[in-house]
Amino acid sequence: MNSPSMNQVFRRLFSHEICSRTRYRSLLGLQESRRLTRPSRQVSTTRGPDDDSARESSWQQRTDLFPLDKSKDFERYPRVTADMLRSRKERPKRVKMLTRDFIEDSLYNPNYGYFSKQVVIFSPGEPFDFQSMRDELEFNRILGRRYTEFEDKLDSVAPNDTRQLWHTPTELFRPYYGEAIARYLAENYKLSHHPYHDLIIYELGAGNGTLMLNILDHIRDFYPDVYDRTKFKVIEISSALASMQASQLHKSASSRGHTNHVEIINKSIFDWETYVPEQCWVLALEVFDNFAHDSIRYDPFTEEPLQGNVLIDNYGDFYEFYTHEIDPVASRFLRVRSVACSQPFDHPLKGSRILRNLKARLPFAANLTMPEYIPTRLMQFFDILHEYFPHHRLLTSDFHTLPDTIKGYNAPVVQTRYQRRVVPVSTPLVQQGYFDILFPTNFAVVEDIYRAMTGKLTRVSSHENFLKRWAYVEDTQTRSGENPLLSWYKNASVMSTV
To answer: Nearest CA to 395 among 230, 223, 204, 261?
Structure first.
């Protein structure tokens, strides 16, 4: 990551406007190929037959005036999945895969994935004293100073221009955010399960372990009878974060007291095979946004869907192909959504078919619609809840809208960090492991699909309204009356099983 060649790549990459796009093709049985005109991604100016060093040393913008035809490569390259790539220590070449597998591999590959190797979660140190602050502007200034101090400390040990540092509401509003979740869990548990069942909590992706400790601290201090029956289980895909959570658990005498209540399970939720017959809560806070999605485009005339595939050539360059063959997972999602959704939702075929056909006949018009990103991995998560956690109650919070998304419907933000600046790009087909790929969640659609797949009832509320109900908001109110706990994350919603 800190090699001279990699730093040179990033310097060149970020020395001009980021407009890295891939090439789009629809494959009509691989016999007819009509190209969509789009700016293309950056590639090397000179190459040897298999010379990656030359490729990494010089980048330029390629146009679509004379695009390369990769149809033959698409025919002969083997198809792989993210599961097949887990044991690989190097990024694959000369392969093809579905878009969701490319995203999954980019984010979660154990050897080069974004969450496995690159992510550092910001910890502000001592909790913020909001009541002593004048207003939210002062909070922003103090937060900025602590960010700088935190990263300066990291750089004093190991300087890194491409450190992927980000924060969560758990860390920013510690311990108040975790206490609100704890009150929600304890009060609902007492209403429905206490004293006949244990309070069993599963947290997906526990980060630094801060939420786990804040929840357990609060239940221990304010609900001692509930604490005696509390079991907290973390399901963590990242080995590094699982080790950090275990370390946090033994950091102080107070946290060590929770040891008998905690189990850290280092595995992906998608590898889960243990049946859980007990009543339990599943916490998935800011998890849905990083679940892999499939890319779907539609023929504007026939309205037939085509599924996105990614081809990686011998030089590590990416090319996007769309085929009429829809895999069973994406096909099932489209069927479930069609049946389950009770409200209209945005997608490429919404609107007048006549106008869409007219636009498609214009000169230089694209031969396929804009891409739609569908949350197929989220559907598989609901399958796991239904099959292995039949008596669960889900609590999830995520972003219902995001700024600076790439083009498309339900499209993600794709970004990296370079020299302490966030740099957004315009395609999800980027160097695996160096970029965050996060999607908005359409809670109207997701809620209907979850209900249809699990048979459970749900409630969706704004992030602000949830915290107004369960947090002691006076703890985070500044002297001016502004409250960062409520004003931040206005683009987030909370969904809970009732």
So the answer is: 204
DSSP string computed for 255-268: HHTTGGGEEEE-S-
d(Cα 441, Cα 384) in Å, to the nearest integer?
A: 19
Query: Which residues contact residue 495 at a Cβ distance below 8 angstroms, ignoring those fewer than 6 apart?
Result: 394, 395, 396, 397, 443, 446, 447, 450, 458, 459, 460
pLDDT tens digits, one per residue of 158-168: 999 999 998 99
- ∠ CA 18-21-22 to the nearest 5 degrees? 155
Task: Report residue 99 as tokens.
Answer: 């878009």
Tokens of 158: 């190991």
Helices H, strands E: what count in the chain?
17, 21
| CA distance to 244, 301, 357, 369, per residue, from 365 (Å) | 51, 13, 11, 10
Closest by CA position to 205, among listed 256, 248, 266, 251: 266
Helix (H, G, I), strand (E, B) or coil at 27: strand
Residue with token string 């011998």? 314
Q: In a 10 Å sphere around its CB, with 0-12 CB exposed, 13-18 middle and 19+ buried, how is residue 145 labelled?
A: exposed
Q: Which residue has the tokens 């999602």?
A: 333
Helix (H) or strand (E) holding 201, with range, is strand 199-204
Q: Are 380 and 407 in contact (CB under 8 A)?
A: no
How far, in Å, CA of 234 to CA of 59, rounded?
A: 43
- Around 285, how many Cα atoms within 13 Å sit in the side-chain half-sphere? 22
461, containing H or E segment: strand 458-462
Quick: pLDDT tens for 26-76. Answer: 444 333 333 232 333 332 333 343 444 333 332 323 334 445 789 999 999
| pTM (2 d.p.) | 0.87
User: Tell me, what's the pLDDT at 360?
Assistant: 83
Q: What is the tens place of the pLDDT at every residue in 75-118?
A: 999 999 999 999 999 999 999 999 999 999 999 999 999 998 88
